[in-house]
Design a protein that fits this description.
about 80% helix; mainly alpha; 16 helices; Growth Hormone, Chain: A
């Protein structure tokens, strides 16, 4: 028989599976992406830091363009970046010891006051039309000194604001505020220059206003730091500062994965940041543009970094973070090579977006791993060593690349650095040193 099932025993139809509630799934995804924002102190700190970062990037963009106008030299652009970061190599290790011994908020407040003062001093010099490049370089060095002591305190403060399970998310969200500022800051610069021209101001007066805006932004972060409820319990050890510094270095040396991650961070910044350093020169010589062209290139890089940090924030703590960092760094190098070869504005903007995204995945993943490995009582010293490597790679790379660019084209220098980045990633993928398994 074709049908052996009786008509009165036909099975009831199976209801279709109930679709997932998109609203619930969306809220869960957002909750996972912004988990650190459930902590009141982290929200306060994030808003203050974001406002200050916007001011910093507004000044940085204006300052780079002003140096280009004053000197038309890639060397001076590299020298300015070098002098701003040099104190980080000189004093950050001491700053890390202080971050473990003293109230981190007090150290941060002192750092903000100094940076606010240097911004106002530069604004006054430009407004009076007496600014010279050596003055800009000297103020950059003073700013770097303040950051050398404030940086370890800031990095060490973040784990105190959230639970350990949400630390990778907090680090990624902290990267987002920094990179949102990389988008908004250059936009503020471009708008200020445009409005200044419409109102009859020259570029120097418009740039002076950018420096004033940066100085005012520090008032917000100062208020945020004062508002934090977290209490710092300093170490009661009576050991000498030098002994504590040695113990921090010994701790890092005793953990091979920490050494590998720190070396990876140093090479990333040494080779990868020449792209941003040379953007004013490339905007002028390759794309034959103006300050608005330079601002657009900076915005594309910053927008990509925001997207990359959002991806890391959504992932949180995930398996094989070290392997992901290495693969992404290889991609970062390839994208830099492509950018060095591009002479089309639209393609360069796309490549800068992808460069920013890949850099942020590497940075957020490596920083999260180091924060998770370091115990609280050693975190200030471990993070100071990491900052010496990460932030110290920027000035050395900028100075070396700027000097090399006086003999060959900046685009060729960028291409060489991108190739070396790929080789470094390949080395760690093969030899690991604990990075691939982290």
């Amino acid at each position: 028989m074709a049908d052996s099932v009786s008509a009165d025993v036909v099975p009831a139809p199976v209801p279709p599976p109930r679709p997932a509630d998109s609203t619930i799934l969306g809220s869960r995804a957002l909750g996972r992406m912004f988990a650190a924002f459930t902590y009141r102190d982290f929200r306060v700190q994030w808003m203050g830091a974001c406002t200050s970062s916007i001011g910093t990037w507004t000044q940085s963009t204006a300052q780079n363009w002003m140096i280009k106008d004053l000197t038309n030299s890639p060397f001076y652009l590299g020298l300015d970046a070098f002098l701003q970061q040099l104190p980080i190599m000189l004093f950050t290790l001491i700053g890390g010891v202080l971050a473990d011994r003293r109230d981190r908020r007090r150290t941060l407040l002192t750092s903000q006051y100094i940076q606010m003062s240097t911004a106002m001093a530069l604004a006054l010099l430009v407004f009076l039309d007496v600014v010279q490049v050596w003055q800009v370089l000297a103020l950059s060095f003073c700013t770097g000194v303040a950051q050398a002591f404030g940086g370890p305190a800031y990095q060490s403060l973040i784990p105190s604001l959230v639970d350990k399970k949400d630390l990778p998310n907090a680090i990624a969200l902290n990267s987002i505020q920094f990179n949102i500022a990389r988008v908004i800051g250059p936009t503020v610069f471009a708008v200020t220059i445009t409005l200044g021209a419409l109102w009859g101001f020259g570029d120097p007066q418009s740039m002076a206003l950018c420096f004033v805006l940066n100085a005012l932004s520090f008032l917000v972060v100062i208020y945020a730091l004062i508002s934090l409820r977290v209490k710092h319990i300093p170490s009661t050890a009576s050991t000498r500062m030098l002994d504590e510094l040695k113990s921090g270095i010994a701790y890092v040396r005793g953990h091979g994965n920490l050494v590998g991650l720190i070396v990876l961070a140093a090479t990333t910044t040494f080779l990868g940041f020449s792209v941003l350093t040379f953007l004013p020169i490339l905007a002028d010589r390759v794309f034959y543009g103006s300050a608005s062209t330079y601002s657009l290139l900076m915005i594309c890089s910053g927008a990509g970094s925001v997207c990359g940090a959002l991806v890391v924030a959504w992932l949180g703590k995930f398996p094989r973070m070290g392997l992901t960092s290495l693969v992404t760094q290889a991609l970062y190098g390839i994208l830099i090579i492509a950018f060095a070869l591009s002479s089309w504005m639209w393609l360069s903007c796309v490549l800068l977006f992808l460069i920013g995204a890949s850099l942020m995945v590497v940075f957020s993943s490596v920083t999260s791993l180091i924060q998770l490995i370091a115990p609280n009582e050693m975190r200030g010293r471990v993070m100071s060593i990491y900052m010496v490597a990460f932030r110290g790679g920027m000035p050395l790379g900028s100075l070396a690349s700027g000097y090399l660019a006086t003999f060959i084209s900046p685009s060729l220098v960028i291409g060489i650095n991108g190739t070396l980045l790929v080789l470094v990633a390949a080395y760690f993928l093969v030899r690991s040193h604990g990075v691939r398994e982290a």
